[in-house]
Design goal:
Length: about 350
């Protein structure tokens, strides 16, 4: 697929766009265009193009509105000091998009076509990719998604599917910047279970996390950490991020991947960057009561969450029905080292020894 732009005009005036880029926030503003393609059983993927960013028209009977058959991705485009624009490991997002689609009974999109759609949108809306201010983290957040658009109320995989890619200029995900956040540990609610959709990036997983997020807010926390749905004893992940702990022996520990944990691209990158920096990395089940006791005893030196939107966010305190467990009031040395090194690769300030980055324009 080529995703031609057909010479479309811009929707936003230069002055309006520049005002937005000066303070974009996160997920508040959108670029002029979007990529679109449609799938049907007889034609496969077709009608691919770059089109104006505009509201969608759907039948009230569209299957996605009734059975939540949809998946999405999230990645970023980074403007470097020389003005060029780059992606970071987009093939990994494309591969996960395929796995998510397969799990939700949706048609798989070829990874090359996935990347082509993103690159076409970025080239059409290159003016929307922010230039980082004074070492900031501004970027263009990219959101590919597909959903069952067939107007049909029978319970089966849809025979009409629409795919879109939209772009949104983004600043830091957390307004507090790199300051440590507080995490509520819920054993009341579960994000996903064995055999479910936890490893797929689908809206239902996020919808099911929102009530637990409310529980976290009621307890003065900004995010929630979920235990496994079975025993309620093991740490899994936050609502939209993976979690890491640094122990007293300088080992970076994180729960192992499973069908109830999202296979984070940032998670994978953190493990590799940590190894590059000479750290031992360990993927093993983490018993919540044990890790909380280790925090209380000072055997856990640092903790952080990671994901595309927030990159790496230090954790200062965990709270649960058992009390408060303080890791630290400041971002840890290793947390910042990992965060800065990963950002330096993404923005081209450090050598990319793994071939992770890809120039778009």
């Amino acid at each position: 697929m080529k995703f031609d732009d057909k010479g479309l005009a811009e929707r936003c005036a230069d002055a309006e766009r520049e005002a937005i880029l000066a303070d974009p926030g996160f997920g508040l503003h959108f670029t002029d265009h979007m990529a679109h393609a449609r799938w049907t059983p007889d034609k496969g993927w077709h009608d691919d193009a770059i089109v104006p960013h505009a509201p969608l028209t759907l039948s009230p009977a569209s299957a996605v509105l009734h059975y939540a058959q949809e998946v999405f991705e999230g990645l970023k485009a980074y403007r470097r000091a020389d003005g060029s624009v780059w992606l970071f490991r987009p093939e990994k997002n494309g591969e996960r998009f395929q796995r998510s689609a397969q799990r939700l009974g949706l048609p798989e999109l070829d990874v090359d076509d996935f990347i082509a759609s993103i690159e076409a949108l970025i080239r059409a809306d290159a003016a929307w990719v922010p230039t980082p201010h004074d070492g900031g983290e501004e970027s263009l957040y990219i959101r590919p998604f597909m959903f069952a658009s067939e107007p049909f109320l029978g319970v089966r995989a849809a025979h009409e599917v629409d795919y879109y890619v939209i772009g949104s200029p983004a600043g830091a995900y957390f307004a507090s910047g790199v300051a440590p956040v507080s995490i509520w540990i819920t054993k009341t609610y579960s994000r996903a279970g064995a055999g479910g959709t936890g490893a797929a990036k689908c809206g239902g997983n996020y919808a099911s996390s929102l009530i637990a997020q409310q529980e976290a807010a009621e307890n003065g926390c900004s995010q929630v950490l979920f235990a496994d749905a079975g025993s309620k004893q093991h740490a899994e992940e936050l609502g939209g991020m993976n979690v890491f702990f640094l122990d007293a022996d300088d080992r970076l520990v994180t729960p192992p991947l499973s069908d109830s944990i999202l296979h984070g691209v940032t998670r994978s990158s953190v493990l590799q960057v940590a190894a590059d920096l000479g750290m031992e990395t360990v993927e093993r089940p983490i018993v919540l009561d044990e890790v909380l006791q280790e925090i209380r005893d000072g055997r856990i030196r640092e903790a952080f969450a990671c994901g595309t939107a927030a990159v790496i966010t230090p954790i200062g305190v965990f709270k649960s029905d058992a009390g408060e467990f303080h890791v630290g009031d400041d971002a840890g040395e290793r947390t910042l080292q990992l965060r800065n090194h990963l950002l330096d690769i993404q923005y081209g300030r450090a050598e990319d020894t793994h071939g992770w980055t890809r120039q778009v324009c």
